Amino acid sequence: MADGAAGITSAMCELPQACRLMCWAHVIRKSREHRKLVLDKEKWLAIEKDIVNLQLVFNDHLFGSAARLMIMKWTADKDLDAFRKYFEDQWLLSLPFWYEGSANLSPSTNNGLESLNGKIKQMYTLCNKFSLSSFLQTAERMLYDWSLASANTPFAIQIEFTNDLATRAYQWLQKLDRTKVLHLGAASYVVPSSEPKMGTSLWVQYYHSILTPPLFCSCKYGLKEYSCVHSLGLIMMWDHRKVPQALGIRRGKDRPKKVKLALTKD
């Protein structure tokens, strides 16, 4: 998790299979600095809303689909061309991992780290360069102070629910139509939104139409070609992919006729 520094990006490229997370606060701040590329204020507010909504996407597949639709929407308006090119190049192609689903249950900003960096400069280094011996003494003092701070303020190991949130959750539960709560997966549920655009059943249908369950098999074909009879067979069994109609129909020995019979309609 970092800002858009080129050095950090280059270093992450050397780590195989590493995800270079981008600080969301930096993304929206830099995007707002380029708002001058959009002259119409109302259009800029709509763009900002699109970006904020895109950041809430909870997995990689949905992000790709949502980002593609957003770019198609912006492409239809010539006034947005300059900003669209900037945003697509910088935040969709170069540094795309700033949405919630890029690392679920992880911080989406590095504000805490930057706050600690500011405290180090204000309380310890005072923005000065040290010799090695002086730096080691300062580092030892920092570690001692932090060890005391961790004792006084223990690290949070579970979520603390406030009374205000509990009250609002109870009020929401009283209004909830429990028949609308759908079981999506092993530990996933779909519940009605407070600002519903569609029913939960229709949402689940759209969700499955966009996502094909990623199945990987350890057989030699699955490892080499990323698909095999086992994975595709299970997808067919769960009705995520229809069986081609041609399967099960034996083809005749003769070549198919190129000319249809007379008095027949196409």
Q: Helical segment tally?
A: 11
Give the mean pLDDT. Answer: 82
Strand content: under 5%
Helix content: 40-55%
Rounded to the nearest angstrom, the distance between the terminal CA atoms is 59 Å
Would you report the number of β strands? 2
**Secondary structural class:** mainly alpha
What sort of overall outline do the alpha carbons produce when their principal axes are compared?
extended
Extract low-pLDDT stretches. none
User: In sequence order, what are the helices and strands, one letter per element?
Assistant: HHHHHHHHEEHHH
Multimeric organization: single chain
Q: What is the spatial order of strands in the main beta sheet? A: 1-2
Radius of gyration: 27 Å
What can be said about the biggest beta sheet?
2 strands, antiparallel
Keywords: Metal-binding, Zinc, Zinc-finger
Protein name: SWIM-type domain-containing protein
GO molecular function: zinc ion binding
Organism: Didymodactylos carnosus
What does this protein structure show overall?
- GO terms for molecular function: zinc ion binding.
- It comes from Didymodactylos carnosus.
- Helix content is 52%, strand content 2%.
- It has a two-stranded antiparallel ribbon with strand order 1-2.
- Among the domains are: 6-103, no CATH class; 171-210, no CATH class; 214-248, no CATH class.
- It is mainly alpha-helical and 266 residues long.
For this entry, give a set of tags.
266 residues; mainly alpha; two-stranded antiparallel ribbon; zinc ion binding; zinc; Znf_SWIM; SWIM-type domain-containing protein; metal-binding
